[in-house]
Amino acid sequence: MSFVQEMAAWPKERVRDLVDGASARDVEAALGRETRTPRDLAALLSPAARPYLEPMAREAHRLTRWHFGRTISLYAPIYLSNICSADCVYCGYAARSHSHEKRTTLTPEETDAESRALAAMGYRNILLLTGEAPHIVPPAKIAEACAVARRHFAGVSVEVYAMDQPDYALLVENGLEGVTLYQETYDRGLYAQVHLLGQKMDYEYRLDALERAGCAGARRITVGALLGLGEWPAEAFWTALHARHLQKACWTSAVGVSFPRLRHTPPRFPITHPLGDAELVQTILATRLFLPEAGFNLSTREPAELRDRLIPLGITAMSAGSSTRPGGYAAADTGVLEQFAVEDTRSPAEVVEVIRRAGYDPVWKDFDTAFMG
Q: Up-side HSE of residue 247: CA atoms within 13 Å toward CB?
């Protein structure tokens, strides 16, 4: 069954009623269970759960240690292109953003240079990104970039536009390991309001893309909502439900969750549902209790001090030393348009030291292809 059908059983009104109607007894019952239901998840995301953040944090820490040990994987993004034909009103890459900064697409040689620069820092896992411009950067070019990056890294993932299953299979044939794709918002009505141009306007096509990627052989698939676009308890609920659906539908793939928070937006889009630090913590904790085996990613969108505090609460992978502009590692051109401003500007070495001081082991490479047969 497609997740589109599963989403239909959880409309916003039903989720809101469950969250708003949850009691302290419901939260305690959810904390007392080992396997938690969607109703338990709603209780853990509710206002009634706020006095229980400490016991939630202890349980999240225990579950993460049980399934992942004391490891934090490290990765970095490589932006292949900042050209975009979509008009997402919250994004600096949008086709109608009226930005005058340089837009560009890396050549294979430039992708190789970016890869060499990151490999020299110690990275063994990278994430390739593009704007929503399949006519400029078609699947064949992304596959070529995967092959280039695969010469330098053990793990190559992509965060690009939604694709058909054969296109994902082409990427896998060229060394792809993982696919990250944010639905941005699971609220269908809001989705239509903020996506005004291009293929990304197709809500259902994007919603089922990760299942297509898993069926095509992607070893890792990662979901996420852009927190701050819609009402955060509902977005967190739907994201976790989507991840659980993928765990069942794509059982040969490891499913992860990212928690991107909307922080910097163009002037035309004020953030109407800002997410505070306490709400972000509650989102991570509730999701961990619902998805004990899922990897959790945290990017440099968040400031250094907050990222450091979140390490023991369920996070299993972090980016570091990130650039959100094409050519940001090997080239010195600062006039290239970036997607968003990085909050944690520390070097990879500095982040590694913080992870070690927290009692965790930084992991540059967490598997070897020899184990894949």
A: 15
Q: What is the pLDDT of residue 334?
A: 63
Q: Is the pLDDT of residue 102 over 60?
A: yes
Please report, to the nearest 10 degrees, the dihedral formed by the alpha carbons of residues 31, 33, 35, 38 taken in order.
-60
Instruction: State the residue for tokens 């184990």.
Output: 371
Residue 72: helix, strand or coil by DSSP? strand
Give the residue among 125, 130, 188 at the shortest CA–CA distance from 318: 125
Distance CA 357, CA 179 (A): 31
Segments making up each domain of the chain, as ranges: 69-366
Mean pLDDT of 322-330: 86
Half-sphere exposure of 124 (CA within 13 A, CB side): 10
Give alpha helix (H) positions in the chain. Answer: 3-8, 12-21, 24-31, 38-44, 53-68, 108-121, 139-150, 165-173, 188-194, 203-207, 209-215, 232-249, 277-290, 304-310, 348-357
Query: Is pTM beyond 0.90 here?
Result: yes
Place of tokens 């600062």: 334
Q: Is 32 exposed, middle or buried (0-12, 13-18, 19+ CB in 10 A)?
A: exposed
Mean pLDDT of 347-363: 94
CATH fold for domain 69-366 = TIM Barrel (3.20.20)
Locate 128 and state its tokens: 């390739």
Supply the pLDDT for residue 282. 98
